[in-house]
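Bench notes, afternoon.
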Amino acid sequence: MVTNTTVQKKKCICNKEELLKKITGEPPPLPIGEVNKIRLNLFTERNSDGTGYLILRGKDLHDRYKRRIKDLDITAIYLYIREIPRRITKVDLCYNQLTDRGFFNLLKRLLIKGRSSIIDLNIMNNNITYKSIEYLAQYAKYIKLKRLRINGNDLGTDSGKFLAQLLKENDTIEFLDLGETGQTLTSVAEIIAAFRNDNEGNTTVKVLDLSRVNPLFNRYSYETKWLAYHIEFLLERNSNVIELHLQKNQFIAHDMEYFVRGLRNNATLRYLNLGYNRIGDYGAELLAKYLSEAPQLIFLNIAGNGIHDIGAKALSYGLPYSNIRALDISQNKISNDGVMDLLYTIKKKVFLRYLNIWGNELKHTSCEIIQRMLMSGVLDQSTFDVKIYEVDEVFYAAYYPNPADRSKHFYYCELEYGYAQPIYHIQRNVLPEKRGKIFTKYM
């Protein structure tokens, strides 16, 4: 009896790709986690004016190499910036794992005036503490940063006096973001005192972010009236800040009395962000009365403040006399009637260039008005967050992400598609021509 036996073929146990690289002389691949000039060059954006931006965002790096920038990588970054012929003016190190040791190395090697050309530093959401702010305050006279973002780091109350020292001694910083840094009423009082023009305070900061201030004690919620009082003090004694962000500070309606008093004594503020507080209808009424006096305010954000129809109607009385060109009143509790009251006041002497209204009640009647305004040109779909569609001769509203509203996208340094894209070529940016000091880029 003959049995069929299968003949087993011998498999090649060699690595063909590796053998091919040895034959062709191709160098071995770089280690996954190594930070070197080749990789840093790929993350450098070229600008039309001959400068460059070094963008090293933690999320992007982690998706590519399964690691983030650490203290030991600062030396490689410093050597790369020093040897590259292109001037690096911006360094973005957000969402990494830098500590006080790495920040001090960065400060000593890259931020001192005579050693670098960096004017924009983003170090948000790292692991730095008040020690880094102490180092920064010691060299306040010798750094030339214009933009400084340290939000998302747990700096604590002890950083208040060092931030105040930094503000008093430095004369270059124009954009300062202190949101979610563990500041309390004590540290905020020291920081705001450093802005007093009548006490040789800071005169260069034009954009300030003091979002999400912590209570003084963890067991008790702080009284927001004291924080509102300090903000009133800031508005009265400072004539340089043109943009103020105060999101998520739990301000209530009566706190707006302090705000409005400060706003009436201020002639420079153009952008006020009070989003996601609790000012309610009474706070909206106080704001509306202030807007009816035709102040200089251009942008107002009162999203997520629990405003009902009473506050919407009050705003409809004040908006026609104001200079507001951008309004964000989304995510409130305004019914269809309140929305109609607001829509009737949009067509005024100063047209709204930007409007967010999604998150309120939108029925057929209000949607019909919106559709008519879009067709007549009173509203522009490219600056509006609602899309109107029709079914069986009934108008409905759908959420349409405002194309002009990319502030959150830029603020949180989100990736364009949510994950790292393959690097096929080095990004090049066409910068606008410099025509004086324009700060709309911070909006």
